[in-house]
Amino acid sequence: MFLKDRPPPRYVEALPRLAHRLPAGHPAAAAIPHQLHRSASGFGGETWVDDILLRTPFPKPPTVIRDLYFGAPYPNQIDTLILTASYCLVLEIKNYSGILHFSDGGRRMEREHHDTGERQGFDSPIVQLLAAMDDMRVLLNKIGCPLPVHGAVVLPHARTLVRGDTGGVPVLYSRALRGFISGLPARNVIAEEQVVALGHSILRHLAADRVIDFQKAFKYTAADVLPGVRCSSCGRPAVRVSERLHRCARCSTEFSDGYKRALDDWFDFVKPEISVKECQAFLGMKDRYAARYVLQKHGFIADGSTNKRVYRKNKEPLADTSGSFRCNPLDLVRVSLVRA
Ligand SMILES: [Zn+2]
Known about the structure:
Layout: H1 10-21, H2 27-54, E1 63-70, E2 76-83, E3 88-93, E4 99-103, E5 108-112, E6 119-122, H3 125-143, E7 149-155, E8 161-164, E9 171-173, H4 177-182, H5 195-205, H6 214-218, E10 238-240, E11 246-248, E12 254-255, H7 258-269, E13 273-275, H8 276-283, H9 288-297, E14 301-303, E15 310-312
Helix pairs in contact: 1-2, 8-9
Bound molecules: zinc ion.
The site of zinc ion (ZN) has 8 residues, from loops.
């Protein structure tokens, strides 16, 4: 059923590390807890809906792709995409609390806090959904797939209330998804056997991963990033105690991956490449040879001639995209799937 994993959002994994790399009192550090809470809450809502989908009876098991990113020039994201032989369904999942007031045909939204009554403007999830549905139509057209595209905004929990004009766009509680899905057209537009291949074709056309510019998002500069190996528990500076081990000067935690984690922080929060000289300074190493040894040992990729050589992270391999979608809806051409 699920063709692609839903990894925890980049922010959930990365923001605690960024917090350890910024000086106390830096304005960017103050913004991190709020964003972390938002990301974790959004992720919780999305996995909740995954569970509901697993318990939803479909006439035939659908193919579900989670957490899809459309790359440049028009970056966009789809929380959940459901593919069947009859339709393509885009779900925009929003784990809001409070009362949502829609206006202007769903193009505007304000959220009212349950307790205080305070109202705050948000990007309307309906606008996001309609843009994602448009992008999906363009992509299906490019692939040559005639499936109609439907969409809904899904609120994981019924304690979120909805008021006003959504412009006819369904805004559903997750427990109502089953009824909504059973009301969608059931006539096959493509062959059942083509649905998984279509999922693979969609994955192949989209960006593999979301790239976040942390400096831009949190308004800090490379010079603000604290150097050195930091503790994996409390984030304080750690000292090297043996060939392999570092120990935290504050909480005494010992860990063996200190250099690797520090370099991951560099690539995520400073810049995507590092010279041997920069590595030596950032890790506080005694000489260039030790720095080069660490870069090579961890498999970073050397780029450029000796003088200007920098190291980069190895790109993650793309997801398995075996099988191709070939659509001839009249003949319902069968596609052979080759498992890797
Ligand atoms: Zn510590």
